[in-house]
Amino acid sequence: MIGNDTHHRAILQRIAHMAMIQRGLLPDFSPGAMSELARIQGPANSDGGPVRDVRNLLWASIDNDDSRDLDQLTAAQPLSDAKTRILVAVADVDSIVKDGSAINDHAQHNTTSVYTAAEIFPMLPERLSTDLTSLSFAEDRLAIVVDMVIAADGSLQDSSVYRALVRNHAKLAYDSVAAWLDDRAPMPEAVAAVPGLDENLRLQDKVAHAMREFRHVHGALSLQTIEARPIFDGDQISSLHVLERNRAKDIIEDFMIAANGVIARYLSAAGFPCIRRVVRTPKRLDRIVEIAAQYGTRLPGNPDSRALETFLTEQRAADPMRFPDLSLSIIKLMGPGEYIAECSGDSAPGHFGLAVKDYTHSTAPNRRFTDLITQRLLKAALTGKPSPYKDDELDLLARHCTEEEDAANKVERQVAKSAAALLLESRIGEHFDAIVTGVNHAGTWVRILDPPVEGMLARGGNGIDVGDRIPVKLLEVDVERGHIDFGRDH
Asked: In b/e form, how buried is each residue of 236-249, taking b as 16+ CB within 10 angstroms?
């Protein structure tokens, strides 16, 4: 057991660095990258080609309270015929981070920022991602703008894409905006400081809700999982805080889903290749059908996202407290998402969970390399230049990004489990209620409900499957390896 005289944060930072290296990821930037960084004088100016000046629009960022790598801004404008213009501005990272540079090489190696309980390993140096390529408050920045016209029913009526100069008029946080929209808290000061921004945000909220309803009618899945973040009291972990969905997060999610679809279709129409984000039809559809039957619902034996969404909606209404557990089971059984290069004449699978055929990742180029690739393709298409990537090169990059995203997820999970092990190490022998979250050749995994911690079922795993509820006993924790072992209670 690791005594409380040792700082939890320092333990987790050491574990995180080791985990990065073990997974083949780079925890630190190379001397070459840091040398390049030192030579960058300031934010990018226009590098040629038309750039619209739309700084006067009511742009604002909504992100986590502590986020500084601001990838996107949003704004809305009411139109006639009950339509609304929704604009998404995405940071033009490519204007500074060039292909072939040492900074780009680091980003291409890791492919993503890695967020652990004790330390963040950014894909780009912080001076870029949180400053020079970030859509920071009160700064003029180059961006790619996705300009959409949305009908009252939430359907996309028209869209365009262009380069622009933007300015962030308010740096907002999810929780405070959501509390205000829900009438649980006063208007955030940053909103009140910008005339008209309150009405603009309420319009964004209204349109996002319509867009979400439109997607779900067409089979997008209402999935809700539990994500817990360690809370530190000084350098010691005191508890796990469950991050919850809210209306402000929904605004950003719904607008980003729409913008990613617009970008994918724009590239396709221009004859450009694209790296698509896909979630294939469920790998274990038979077990999903079995779980639905346990709730009294008969699902078709062939993949049917609308039928599955109807079932999920009914269960969320019937038992909202336990719905995240059902969601987690469905997510595990659907299988992971992946990146696939769609080249001329190809037709990549769609995104089953979002019920969309055309989908890419384009809205977070400060922290996902696929989005930076997409941005380079898009800027070439906008200026009539040839694709900066060959088809076989994109295919290799797509596979590499899928593999490294998996490695990054494993690092994040390992550190999260080490944090949970630190929290639970004094509770060996206690009994908990749990849900089975995974069953494969390597073993059986369960998640206890309070605190929301996942671990291996080291004893008593026969005859159970994903989605089953069982009582368990905490047997052992290994902080260094991030292992938490439970035994089944009988």
From this structure: ebeebeeeeeebbb
Distances (CA, A) of 236 to 4, 114, 428, 453, 483: 8, 21, 19, 18, 19
Tell the residue number behind the tokens 């997510």, with chain if given.
331
Q: Which of 60, 55, 57, 56 is nearest to 73 (CA)?
A: 60
DSSP-assigned letters across all residues of 211-277 = HHHHHHHTT-------EEEEEEETTEEEEEEEE---HHHHHHHHHHHHHHHHHHHHHHHTT--EEEE
**pLDDT tens track for 251-292:** 999 999 999 999 999 998 999 999 988 876 677 888 888 888
Asked if residue 470 belongs to a domain, the reply is no
Residue 431 lies in a domain: no
- The residues near 237 (Cβ < 8 Å, ≥ 6 apart) are 8, 117, 230, 231, 419, 422, 423
Residue 345 belongs to domain spanning: 8-280+337-419
Strand 236-243 to 227-233 pairing? antiparallel
pTM of the model: 0.87
Q: What is the pLDDT of residues 383-441, one digit of tens each?
A: 999 999 999 999 999 999 999 999 999 999 899 999 999 999 989 999 999 988 878 77
Domain count within the chain: 1
Structure tokens at 143: 């961006």
